[in-house]
Write a structure and sequence with these properties.
Elements: H1 7-12, H2 20-33, H3 39-54, H4 58-70, H5 77-98, E1 127-132, E2 136-141, E3 182-183, E4 191-192, H6 195-204, H7 213-219, H8 222-237, H9 242-251, H10 269-277, H11 288-308, H12 311-317, H13 319-339
Antiparallel strand pairs: 1-2, 3-4
Helix pairs in contact: 2-3, 3-4, 3-5, 4-5, 8-13, 11-12, 11-13, 12-13
Pfam family, one: zf-MYND
Protein name: MYND-type domain-containing protein
Biased composition (Low complexity): 87-101
């Protein structure tokens, strides 16, 4: 599938308009839809370099020139643009070296308002995990808290970029890098700020979702997508062996998994995965109509996974793994529904 740049991009780039960011998004869309090495992609990279030059983003300009040439751009305009960007970059560096201006402040990481637990440095020692019939499993504090107190700092097990940021932020690290995004060659839905992030995304989860992303975004809300990515990360955690994941969960005593008592200083990725796997589904509290809806959607997702990913042949050869995958999709959709944070 190809999407060449055209009137919309040119209109945004008109000297009397200068809506450069809108133009960048449209060029990124062209890049995502174009074939590797195609004229369309080469032109999009070349025009993106021109915007970077006009916005005085000289390093990004040079990176786009490199990408355009890798895509077989044959025009002569890049040579002069490269020369202009290099000269401007050298002048800017010399100016900065002789300037006494202070660089922009670095965003500070949040800190806990109270001492942390010895076994869990991301949790304040005033928090406890409890369970009863009224609230189920829940967290309480053993001291009075003030508005704005930070009592937990935790990296999420899975994150999903909002679809509206697809052509602005990296799908892996989520950094805002619209001027240098590169596409996944297997789908038109994910872009990355570097080859490193592209590779990490593929190895961590994208290999199992690449063929599904467009339908997941167009047909479903975010819950099924997050659930599929959770399963992808889980399989990758067990060396991309779904049967090893199944064996692990079959042997897991879920009643002994407690993220508040586990020693996070020594926790492995499998230990961390366990704490996510045991999150509540609330299936027993749901109306049968909603349970039926989850089952229906899980069946559709399961079919797509079998048809469009490398898990299909694995499940075809092993019926037990096939059923395990379908059960996991249903479980994780309900976990996401209860525990996601928008």
């Amino acid at each position: 599938m190809r999407l060449s740049y055209g009137p919309k991009e040119k209109k945004m780039f008109h000297p009397n308009v200068k809506r450069y960011i809108e133009a960048i998004k449209l060029y990124n869309e062209s890049i995502a839809f174009s074939e590797k090495g195609s004229t369309e992609r080469a032109l999009a990279y070349a025009n993106r370099s021109n915007i970077c030059l006009k916005m005085q983003r000289f390093e990004e300009c040079l990176e786009n020139i490199r990408l355009a040439r890798e895509s077989n751009y044959s025009g002569e305009k890049l040579n002069q643009r490269e020369k202009d960007a290099k000269n401007a970059l050298a002048k800017a560096r010399n100016k900065n070296a002789s300037s006494s201006k202070v660089s922009p402040d670095v965003v500070e990481e949040p800190e806990l308002s109270y001492p942390s637990k010895e076994n869990a440095p991301q949790i304040a020692n005033c928090l406890e995990l409890r369970k009863n019939e009224e609230y189920g499993r829940h967290v309480v504090t053993t001291r009075k808290l003030k508005v704005g107190d930070v009592v937990m700092i935790e990296r999420p097990f899975v994150t999903v970029l909002k679809d509206s940021f697809r052509y602005v932020r990296c799908d892996f690290c989520h950094e805002e890098r619209p001027f240098t995004l590169i596409p996944c060659e297997g789908c038109t839905m994910a872009m990355y700020c570097s080859e490193e992030c592209l590779s990490k995304a593929y190895n961590n989860y994208h290999r199992y979702e690449c063929g599904l992303l467009r339908d997941l975004w167009e047909v479903f809300e975010t819950v099924p997508l997050i659930a599929i990515r959770m399963i992808a990360i889980a399989i990758a955690t067990f060396d991309n062996n779904p049967e090893a994941l199944k064996d692990h969960l079959d042997a897991l005593d879920e009643s002994n998994v407690n993220g508040f008592t586990m020693d996070w200083n020594k926790a492995t990725q499998q230990d961390i995965f366990n704490t996510v796997h045991v999150l509540t589904t609330n299936q027993e509290r749901r109306h049968s109509m909603f349970v039926a809806m989850f089952i229906f959607n899980a069946t559709i997702l399961h079919t797509l996974v079998l048809e469009r990913t490398e898990l299909g042949p694995v499940c075809e050869a092993n019926p037990a793994t096939n059923k395990f995958l379908q059960d996991l999709i249903l479980r994780y959709m309900q976990i996401v529904n209860c525990n996601r944070k928008l």
